[in-house]
Here is the input.
Amino acid sequence: MRLRVLGCSGGIGGRHLRTTCFLIDSDVLIDAGTGVGDLSLAELSIIDHIFISHSHLDHVASIPFMVDTVGGMRTKPILVHATRATIEILKNHLFNWAIWPDFTEIPTPEAPFLRYEEIELGRTFTLSGREITPIPAIHTVPAVGFHLDSGASSLVFSGDTGPNDALWRIVNRIRNLKFLIIETAFSNKERKLADMAKHLCPQTLAEELAKLERSVDIYITHLKPGEIELTMQEIEECAGAFRPRMLQNNLVLEF
Here is the structure.
């Protein structure tokens, strides 16, 4: 499997700052933040699946524009895979005719541009030999992370999460784990806000990584613009023994 980072920032502001989205091979998105907009029309048109970690705007912002742009170019609907709770939020608050048209009814309910597929924690979705499994995340809305397994090796994406013992119980059982992408959204001076928003800061990241029992390549995502250098410096001070690196746009991870 091949993961290309289209967006990994906690905000926008400049051509390198795009919110969360990862392109898997050429046909699958993990989340659909603002970085999706950097794909060409041809690239957009061949994406068949979007797996959503949760409903926050920085992870779903590009779905409405993408479906509207390429829906009529395709012969089958784009499948949005999400938990039942997240699907309900998308139906009620995004594709609701007030914010955006309901593309599960356009052009007809029988042949729509968009369909939802419900996912469940721990239930693996297999796609051409690739396995995608939702794993626990602890956030302010219903949320998951994802375990991606090519068969040869694996990648785990934490999603947006605060401290999360359930994540580590799963991660420590993955024998072929190669990469861990984990969020750190705030600097240490914002720890109170991070705890309230159910995100990590460098101190809590270090506490979480202490639960890791495997040697893996660790990448940090969801850094807030304006605090990137400070937060990475604090991560080095708090968790440098784990050799975490900053995730960056257009990085490609093969596993």
